[in-house]
Design a protein that fits this description.
Number of domains: 2
Strand content: 25-35%
Number of strands: 6
Structural class: alpha+beta
Radius of gyration: 19 Å
Number of helices: 5
Order of helices and strands: EHEEEHEEHHH
Largest sheet: 3 strands, antiparallel
Distance between the termini: 31 Å
């Protein structure tokens, strides 16, 4: 197991979130394993905003993983939360997996009289047994993710088994690797 974290300061909560999550997701992408826990904090004041996110990664099982965020304004907590929830749900709709941690906070600055809802969500994506019918671009995208998780080492995968999972021939996978700029 290992702990990955990020602290980011910026002029606004939105900018601090954007930068912190980008850094952390970059680290998560390069780290073998899956997220077991996540915690976060968001502070805002006259001097700017600070976002802190920490994840615990168990290295025993390789899964795509990421942290999502939303920071939305509304005239009250209900409206702000509704907008943030919609943004997170739109991102989740494109992913298949499980939420393994979340954080939420409301910030209401004195001027302007708006409320901001911040949501931060950690997710582990599913790794399906069979891929079904994918377009060549979707297949290459998934193959690229697998290779990235394995340190961009194509020798680390069994092409016959991967071809079975994708429902394509081994020759097709060789062509996909060539399209990705990877020699085997």
């Amino acid at each position: 197991m290992q702990v990955l974290s990020c602290v980011q300061r910026a002029k606004s909560v939105r900018k601090a979130l954007e930068q912190a999550v980008a850094k952390l997701n970059g680290r998560l992408e390069k780290t073998r394993g899956y997220i077991t826990k996540m915690d976060a904090s968001v502070d805002s004041g006259i001097a700017g905003a600070t976002v802190r996110i920490i994840t615990v990664v168990d290295e025993s099982n390789v899964r795509p993983k990421s942290v999502l965020w939303a920071n939305e304004a509304g005239r009250n907590e209900e409206k702000a939360l509704s907008r943030a929830r919609e943004k997170i749900n739109a991102q989740l709709a494109r992913l298949h997996g499980e939420i393994v941690g979340f954080y939420w906070k409301f910030i209401t600055p004195p001027i302007p009289k708006r409320t901001y809802a911040t949501l931060i969500v950690a997710i582990n994506e599913e790794v399906p047994e069979k891929m079904g019918k994918l377009s060549s671009d979707e297949r290459r995208e998934r193959l690229a993710v697998v290779l990235r998780l394995l340190g961009n080492t194509p020798q680390a995968i069994n092409l016959v088994q991967v071809a079975k999972i994708f429902g394509v021939s081994r020759d097709t996978l060789y062509k996909d690797l060539q399209e990705l700029g990877i020699e085997r």
